[in-house]
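Students often ask why we bother encoding 3D structure as a string. The short answer is that it lets us treat folding as translation between two languages. Here is a chain of 497 residues written in the first language.
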Amino acid sequence: MADVPDPEPLLAAAAALILVGVLASKVSAKLGVPALLLFLAIGMLAGSDGLGGIHFDDFHTAQSAGIVALAFILFAGGLSTSWADVRPVLGPGVALATVGVVVTALVAGGIAAWALDLSPTSGFLLGAIISSTDAAAVFSVLRSRNVSLRGEVRPLLELESASNDPMAVFLTVGFLELLTDPDASVVSLLPLFVQQMAIGAAVGYLLARGTVTAINRLRLEYEGLYPVVTLAVVMLTYGSTALLGGSGFLAVYVAGMAMGNREFLHKKSLMRFHDAIAWLAQISMFLVLGLLVFPSQLPAVAGRALLVAAALVLVARPLAVFLALAPTRLAMRARAMVSWVGLRGAVPIILATFPLAAGVDEAETIFDTVFFIILTSVLVQGTTIPLMARWLGIDAPLRARPPSYPLEAVSSTDGETSLHELTIPPESPVTGRQLVDIGLPAGALLVLISRDGEFVVPQGGTVIRGGDQALILADADTLPQVRTVLEGPGPERLPPC
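And here it is in the second language, the structure alphabet:
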């Protein structure tokens, strides 16, 4: 019987790498360097060719872990996607997530086949692996520079990056099947695509609706069980969809988006929980990429791999964006920004393990090239995004994040009393008046005020100011009256958070 390694050293090493990665994110904000680049560097330093000397080349384990990581990344992305924000850009976003991904894969794959002397199918496989984008990395860079994006650019990038991964996964699996199965053909992949997308969307939506209903009706005795429920839902959604022949990755994204745009108990705390899980997955996959890479083997493909990376950034991505957005009225400056914001993240890392696990002859060349592409994308595009936004004139000051209350704000789901967040407009009729004089309706209570980064426990003599973030305890029937009192009767009321 083979000796089972002790888990203690593995746990200690994994914890140390993750903690160093978290600390690196703090350093990246000060240096203006993308955190993902530091995660990658830490993995390489810890690897067999680095100072850590950790030898890790188990591509099957990396692939399995990557699939789980991608499922949770996509679910968190869907959970934080606001339908109200993406609805105006739904058409362009879907075009980028489908047509844009296909064009990127074909153009970059054709150039890769020529530059790396690969077979056409292997080249297109490489193109599929690197065809999806990661806006989470983009927005972390913008946040560190205190910059945002104007107009439709930000929601368009959010929708594209959150929804283009299933297409990249399908193309990767499809080209991999063409490489490994002599009987497979491109024509046979078309019905499979329709089947996977239809089943994935249907199962994801139905399970999300059922989950929201269950969470609101179960009333679990322990709050700590709600994250357990959503963890199980993500795994059930992916696993059951895959067993039915659908796209599990599309299903978890649709499930996340369907849940995120409905009200359920402990919604905010669950969203924060899954955001943390997504960050853990991102950090872990970049560390794994660093461990899997053997720097001593990289010089052999460095020059040609950098050529492919340059072709992706300067040719494939811009061409895909301008073709996908050709029917739209999006301004040319906005299209140029979208084409530049093509940052590659954890998904290409995960997909790059597929050819290695399948034993494809040219898999190592593909993997090493993906490493250079991610490195180039994060280093070049990641560091120049704020500069490009300013040059194109579509940058905007980053809006302050909403306050993190010491009390959990839970939206009302069934008419019962719950906590709601409201912003007091400067022109509100209650501005400058004492709380005792504003006349809140019976059954409503102003619990807490966030003002200038500090929390104020309101008393009867507390004076209300414009810009105050008020935490209100009220039921769903009383809330409209509270909004009328605090925000005034005008049409420009802010929606509750």
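Translate back mentally: The first strand starts at residue 147 and ends at 149. Keep this in mind for the problem set.
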